[in-house]
Amino acid sequence: MVGLVQGLRPALSGIANPAVSPRAEEVRFISHHSFGLLAGSALGAVAVGILTLVLLLLLDSTRFRRPQMWPGARPLVLFGGIAVAVVSIAHQAVSSVETHNFASGHNFDTQAVNNALTKGAANEIVDYIDLLAGLALAAGMIVTMLNSLRVGLLPRWMALLGMLSGLLIFLPIGGAELQVIVSFWMVMVGILYVGKWPNGAPPAWEAGEARPWPPSARAAARMSAAAPAAASASASDVPAPAPPAGAGSSRKRRKRGGRS
C-alpha cells in the first residue's frame, strides 16, 4: 500500500499528473503476488459454498415446518451463493491480468493505475455482478433467518447474527469483521446440526413441526401484570342482574293486604 507521504509527494512538488503514479508499486505488488491472491480467493469461494449449503439445509428444514414460506428464498440463496463464489475468483483473475498488463507495459500514470485496479471494463463488469450476487445472497439469508426464527429452529440471537451477516455480505463494510462474524455463525450452526447445542437443541428440531419461541421474560411479566387488570375491568363492566318482572307490584299488593 502507498503511504500518505508517498501519495502526497507529487502534489507537494507541484506535479498534478506525474508520469509514474505513487500507486504504481502497489499495482506491481499485486501482479507479483497474483498466485497467492488467487489461492486466497479460491479458499474464500469454498467458504461461501459451505455457507450456501448450510443455508439451504436450514431453509429446507424451515420450509418443512412452515410450507407457506416465500418460495423465492431458495433461488436467491442458491444463485447468490454460487455467483458470489464464482465472482470472488473472477475478480481476482481479472485483477491479475490487468495488473500484469500494467507491470509489463510502459504507461504508469494515474489513469493507467486506475484502469488496472478499478476503472477497467472487466473490473466494472465483475463489480456489477458482485453487487447483484451479494444482494441476492443477503436477501435470501435474511428471509431464511426470519422464517427459521418463526418456527423455532434458531435462537433469537443466532437469527439476528445471521441477518447481520447477510447485511455485511451486501454492504461494502465487510473485511475482517465479516469473516469473523460469518465464521462464528457457521460454527454455531454446525454445533446445532450435530446435536451438541448447550442445554439441548430447540424443540422444533425433534418435534418436526413449528415450535415458536415463547415470549421473553419481560414481555411475559407485562402480560401477566395486565391480565388481572383486564379481568377486573371486564368484571366491572358486567351489569347487575335486573329484578324479575312483577316483583315490585307483588310487594305493593302484600303491603296493601297487610293494611286491610
Descriptive overview:
With 260 residues, the chain is mainly alpha-helical. It has one domain. It has eleven helices and no strands. Residues 1-5 have low confidence and may be disordered.
Question: Features of this protein?
Answer:
260 residues; mainly alpha; disordered N terminus
Summary of the model, kept short:
The protein is an all-alpha fold and 260 residues long. The chain is built from eleven helices and no strands. 23% of the residues are buried.
Q: What fraction strand?
A: under 5%
Biggest beta sheet attributes: none
Helix content: over 70%
Radius of gyration: 34 Å
User: What is the tally of beta strands?
Assistant: 0
Helix and strand layout, with pairings?
Elements: H1 4-12, H2 24-32, H3 34-65, H4 73-103, H5 110-119, H6 121-151, H7 156-170, H8 176-193, H9 203-207, H10 217-236, H11 247-259
